[in-house]
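As described in the Methods, two query proteins were run sequentially through the folding procedure within a single session, without resetting any intermediate state between them. The first query and its resulting structure tokens are shown here.
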Amino acid sequence: MSSPAGKSAPASLSPLVHLCSLIRLSNQTGTLLLMIPTLWALVLASKGRPAGLLIVLFIAGSFIMRSAGVIINDLADRSFDRRVTRTQTRPLASGVLRPWHAILFLGVLLAIAVSLLLFLNPLAIRLGPVALALAAIYPFTKRFFRVPQLFLGLAFGWGAVMAWAAVRNQLNPATWLLFSATICWALAYDTIYALQDVEDDLRIGVNSSAILFGSRVWAAVGIIETVMLALLATAGWLENLNAVFYVGLAGVAGFLSQQVLRLRSQVSPPEAFSMFKQHTVIGLVILIGIWMGTL
């Protein structure tokens, strides 16, 4: 995920600048959306007192894995990206970086990810390869699956499963509720994100949930987000969170309902991107609610 302009550095700049552009260093919305569910899990599983080392590891791991994920995505989609206005200036699509540059950088990032993984307990380590497999599969799903955003949710939600395992060394029912809630959340916000590219996606023949839902995208997003909130509320109930958590969820529900109402009308690409970015704030409000719910 990148900015709506899909801007890349000019070819005359140094390779390091192009590598920074490749991993969207100037736009960390994707990193936040990957990181926030891991923090949900760390805070909930630890009853509001997550270990500092785990916080550092999962923040760093989110940045590394999101960076690796966008490299895999750009390697897989470089022929498509050349035909989409928003993405045609990305380093691989524009040719300012060669695929072997990206593959080498990807190898470095994955080596760092493995080194971070080794600080976790055995259960979390065993769960790690699933995260890489999901990140590798996701870019190809738009070719054959009507709702590729579902696979993005699986990839982003798996971080919460690993974080829970890192705290408790076991997987509880609340783990899978958080995982499912993250899948729903990603499906909702990435459907909004995909509204930017509907015309280009139709032209080049790739799938997205925005295309599938069509004029009913507002209803689909509303239903998905309602399920997400119900899953989070159930996880909070299982873990005995106090009323503050539910007040926070109610506030989130009110804000999300405003987004859904806006989606009933045509949304421009810049507005879709702005609505998508608002979900980082939504995720942080839920995080604060979880933490205060443990006090």
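Immediately afterward, the second query was submitted; its sequence and tokens are:
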Amino acid sequence: MGIAIRFIAAIAAAVAATTVFAQAAPSDKGYVIVTDYLTADGLTDVSGAIQRIIDDNPNRTIYFPDGVYLIAEPILTPADPAKSVALELSNYAVIKAAPEWPHDEAMIRLGGKDAANDIATPGSNYYLAGGVIDGSGVAAGISIDSGRETVIRDTAIKNVSLGIHVKRGVNSGSSDCDIHDVNITGNNRPESVGVLVEGYDNTFTNMRIGGVYTGFHIRTEANSLRNIHPLYYGASDDSYAASCGFMDERGNNWYDFCYSDEFATGFICGGRSLYDNCYAYWYSKRGTKHTAFKSTGRFLSLVLNPHIGFGIHNATEDNRILEAGEPGGSGRIENLFVLDPNLVTDQTHIPYIKE
């Protein structure tokens, strides 16, 4: 009996310890709390104060409690592992751009100073997590400027001209970043872009993107996209014809369960990429032409199990599975599903169909 009581007590103590750890305050974790140094009132420009906190606390987690942090200057974190920091925002912490934001650069520039190509030194795996990045309708949200192993996760990026910009990486062009569980809402202007990728070897997972004219724009290779859902809901104007869910300039990228929703063109294929279980659907009669896949030259990509839905409520005049810039490509489309094949108005895709 005594053994049983001691066993139950040990379990209760372990549960209690786990509960205490889960509820530990950021200060108990050793985080640097920014509100110990500034006021998050949404009225005072705190960009200089945040930058000083970052510069004075290398290899620390910088924590932003609930509140609105108004910034008029970009915030730069170091890529050098000896100086790097992690930025962690509470769920209702908002870093907000000043309405007169005068900069072309993003609000938060991860690896924006002290560039380094070093994954051997502890500190190379810095991140931004949580909270809201609000561009006030004029600013770009977050950029990854240098470094490797950079992570952006569990973050909402709102009212931005450009959500995330992955710049050319320091490792011979590779940026090697991981971005997941991020929601982006653009400013719904014709130049708005959800994600712009100029570095190689990145992974993007579980992202929702709205209020943009281009969902994902990739200028490099060796990128992996899984469960990415850009949605167009702009006005039906002259700019709609140029809207695109996924624009791939180079090829050699992998798309898995990616869903272009309502854009004039679902996927622009600039080279040889793999599209697996991808969707292109339209629910309204915007514009005059809807295209699921479009190649800028010869069609070279492998498209497996595509799901296409034209005009679920109203069909446009011109509905295409494929538009090829040049004939004779080696691409293939396998196991094609079209919600209503009678709505397809062009047969360019037929030579590429493989059952």
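Residues 3-8, 14-21 have pLDDT under 50 and may be disordered. We note this only descriptively and draw no conclusion about the first query from it.
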